[in-house]
Structures are given as structure tokens and as C-alpha cells.
Amino acid sequence: MNRVLILVNITGLIIGISYGLHGPILPVFAKNVIGATYSELGLIGLTNFIPYMFIPLFVGILLDRINNGHLLAVGAAMNSASIYLLSVAQSVPEIMGFRVMTGIAHAFFWPPCESIISNESSEKDRVRNISWFTMFFVIGFMVGPLLGTAFLEGLDITYRILFQIAAFILAAGIITALLASRKRVRNHHEGFSFSSIKQMKKFPEVIILLIFCTSSFGIILTIFPAFLNDRGMTASDILLLYFVFGISRVVSLALAGKFARNTSHTLIAGTIAVSMGLAISIYAESIITFGIALVLMGFGFSIFFPLTLEIILSKTRKAISGKIIGAYETIFGMGWAIGPTIGGPISQSFGNEIPYALFCIIGIGVAVFAIISRKKLEPQRVLN
Known about the structure:
The chain is mainly α. It has helices spanning about 5-20, 25-35, 40-50, 55-65, 70-85, 90-105, 110-120, 125-155, 160-180, 195-200, 205-220, 225-230, 235-255, 255-260, 265-285, 285-315, 320-350, 355-370. Helices cover about 80% and strands about 0% of the residues.
């Protein structure tokens, strides 16, 4: 692993720690301190993810023109500021405004990292290197809740101070991003085009799986912590559960290289695992049962990313890989926005367990679809 890849992985680790430190607590803070309803939690999640439906497409264009490390540094700086501002939020609209900033910032984090890794990797090593980067991010997301538990219980700090600590940690990512930018990783510059969107139309099967996965993931990130709180889980319990969630994701990503040998089978298994986790969540009452549900979902959510990206990149011209990454991340944004948009109002109107039942049923249907379409869920293999 070369120097640039190491720096990108460290950046992912830092940002992951910050996300893990504040992310699972934000819905609890919004519900218990600000007084947000489930519908408002859904709106907060929507405003966070709506920018990710559009901004990655334009960031993808910039990836072919501007030093990717500089774009990554911009994202880290904006992200740090948006998280710090949460510490002074007094209303739901303020939180929504600050989460819009977070959504824009995330679009300047993930696509540049993917682009740097793609350009620093051979086709044979690309899945492994992208999985390693994601694993570093997830390790951070796993460590963050543990730090949060220590701060909340050991130091007896408030949620607002926790957000400030998360912001300062994330700011360190600016330094590693700038260090990674010292090496240019892009040599060609194509003009503006919508070729990436046209390319994505070639992968309808991948898009369907991604939208289900990211919609479900969006609910788990934005509404599920409040659901856990209503089921009797304390803030520390919730952070510990997301630590377990992180362990599952790290193990899954560590094995991504082996799973890639049977991509379609793994994606089918991941879809089934997410559906099972959602089903268990409906009836869970104890921290152990919720932990089992999150372990299953952790596997499914994590394995989708490197394998689906490899399917697309393996069938895409190198010259537009930056733009196709932007279009790919836009699909993520669509799913992340759909989940909270549906989940929040449904929880408010019909019961807080109904979104998980609905997405469980959808997941079963998607799994059947994936089985039927499994031949199209394989990457273009590189011959030795």
C-alpha cells in the first residue's frame, strides 16, 4: 500500500470516528432535547441526504479536473464546521440547516476518496483497496460510539459538548487530506458531459439493489436510534449497539476480497441479511436481540458498497471513472433520502416499528429479483 492510499485510509478513519461519535446520538438529542417528532426526524434525515442526490454528480466532474486531495480537504473542513454548529442548535429547522451542510460536505469526502483509490490501484487490487478504505472508515465509526460512551458516562458531558469534540476530531482530517494532495492523481481532463448518467442506465439491477440497501441504511442512521430509545435503550446502550454494528461491518469488509469471488451470491446474501435484521428489530426488546439485528444488517450494508462499485467500474471506461463515481454516489444519496422520508412519517402515523416491517417485505422482493438477475450482478473479470 503506497503513501497516498495510507493517507486516504487515515482520513477515512478520522472522519469515521467523528461520525460514530455524534451520528447515533443526534436523533436522540433531537428527540429528547429539542423535542423532535418522528416525522421531524425523517425531515432531518432527508435534509442531510438530499444534497447527496445531486452534489456527487458535480463533484464527479471536478474529480477529472481538480486535485482530488484538495476536494477532500474542502469536504473535511465543511463537515467539521457543520458538526460543530449542531452544538448550538436550538430548533429542528436549525438542525436541518446544519445537516444540509453535512450532506454537501459528505459529497466532497467519499467520491474523492474513491477516485484517489481507483487511480492508485490496479484493476486486480481495486476491490481490496476500496474495501480497506471503507474498513478504516467503519473502524472509526465503530470506535466513535465507544468514545462517546466514555465521554457521556465517564466525564458526564452533554450532547452539545460531544458534538464539539466530534467536530475537532474531524478537523484533523483536513491535514491528512492536504498531505494526500501533494501527489497529483489525475492526468486527463474531459469536458462536461452527462455520459456518467447514461453509463449508469446500463446497470438497472445494481441500481435497484443499491436503492433498497441505502434506503434501509438511511433509516438505521437517522430514525433507528430514536426507535431504540423508545424501546428502553439508553444513550450508552445505543452507542454500544452501534459499536457492535461497526464490528460486523469491519469483519464483512475484511472478507470483501473473498466475497468478490462470488459477487452475485454475496449480494443476494446481503439483501437477505438486511431483511432478516429488519424483521428481528420489529420484535426485539433486549440489547442482545437488537445486537443480533444490527450484526446482520452490518454485513448486508457493508458488502454492498465495494462489490457494486466494482461491477460498475469494471464495465466503465477509465476516462470517465471520476464522473461515473459521482453518478454512483448520487444513487446512494437517492436511497439515503428515500429511507428517512418514508420512515419518519410512517413511524409517526402508524407505529414506530412499521417502517422496518415495510422494508423487510421490500427486501424479500429485492432478494428474489437479485436471484433472477444474478448473472448481471457479476463484474467483468480481469484475466491474469
